[in-house]
């Protein structure tokens, strides 16, 4: 698509720059601010970075992959290429876009907002933005494969993404969520991306929220219900595992679709042969 239509790449570049500048200007120098506003702005920009990349990547690839699915099944049936070659080539082409553009966006936002001036924390922040984008991309492919048509997938995707966003840890404290609903947070890539960023930013920092005495950043982590013992690297590994599982299910769904198409084709061929045989018998009888 990028080669046939370079406007896609140009629009993606423009989108990345514009959104990054808007977010950067909105939260400009929040890292150097004092008071509760600093904490609110830091958390807000990290949540936006996670949610925006998950949802935009999901909807973006869903629109492309969902539209190509019927073409793929037809060309696969004609023997042009196999499922593994198509799936691997599609992944190899798309993944770099899910790395380069989110990383560029994360870089612009990070320094405009003024998050911790630490190289390791910068790279960790960018890594989580990229992982959020890749996780959203994998979700989009999965949804495109399991739903029968693109309109159905586009209608169902927001319904699925909304609870995942609500259970991410920003809108509701994770410790106060009813027990019978808490399982939703564990399948939310937004939750693990946001939690990884929060723990990265609020670890090793002193914040002045109320009064003259500084508050350890870990207090902010605890107040959001994220003091669950889950390390930053564990959040990253969970996101990677989610990507692998989602792509695995997407591949299996495509394999099942191909098998059902083959079965239907064989059934139609058998029926046509039977009808042709009966017509020949009837013709021979008339003679």
UniProtKB/TrEMBL annotation:
Keyword Transmembrane helix: yes
Mode of membrane association: Multi-pass membrane protein
Primary location class: membrane
Membrane-spanning parts: 45-65, 122-145, 152-172, 232-254
Signal peptide: none
MF-aspect GO terms: ABC-type transporter activity
Keywords: Membrane, Transmembrane, Transmembrane helix, Transport
Ranges where the ABC-2 type transporter transmembrane domain occurs: 2-202
Name of the molecule in the record: ABC-2 type transporter transmembrane domain-containing protein
Species: Synchytrium endobioticum
A GO-annotated cellular component: membrane
Superkingdom of origin organism: Eukaryota
Subcellular location: Membrane
């Amino acid at each position: 698509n990028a080669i046939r239509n370079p406007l896609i790449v140009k629009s993606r570049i423009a989108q990345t720059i514009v959104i990054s500048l808007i977010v950067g200007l909105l939260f400009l120098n929040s890292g150097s601010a004092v008071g509760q506003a600093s904490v609110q702005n830091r958390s807000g920009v990290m949540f936006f970075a996670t949610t925006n990349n998950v949802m935009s990547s999901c909807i973006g690839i869903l629109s492309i992959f969902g539209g190509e699915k019927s073409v793929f099944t037809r060309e696969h049936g004609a023997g042009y290429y196999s499922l593994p070659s198509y799936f691997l080539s599609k992944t190899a082409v798309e993944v770099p876009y899910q790395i380069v553009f989110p990383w560029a966006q994360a870089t612009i936002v990070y320094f405009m907002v003024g998050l911790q001036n630490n190289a390791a924390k910068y790279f960790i922040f960018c890594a989580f933005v990229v992982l959020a984008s890749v996780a959203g991309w994998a979700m989009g492919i999965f949804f495109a494969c399991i739903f029968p048509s693109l309109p159905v997938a586009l209608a169902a995707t927001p319904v699925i993404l909304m609870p995942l966003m609500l259970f991410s840890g920003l809108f509701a404290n994770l410790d106060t969520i009813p027990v019978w609903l808490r399982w939703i947070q564990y399948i939310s890539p937004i939750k693990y991306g946001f939690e990884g960023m929060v723990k990265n930013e609020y670890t090793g920092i002193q914040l002045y929220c109320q009064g003259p005495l500084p508050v350890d950043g870990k207090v902010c982590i605890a107040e959001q219900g994220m003091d669950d013992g889950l390390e930053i690297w564990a959040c990253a590994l969970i996101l990677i595992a989610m990507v692998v599982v989602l792509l695995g299910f997407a591949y299996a769904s495509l394999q099942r679709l191909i098998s059902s198409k083959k079965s239907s084709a064989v059934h139609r061929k058998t029926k046509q042969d039977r009808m042709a045989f009966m017509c020949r018998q009837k013709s021979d009888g008339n003679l």
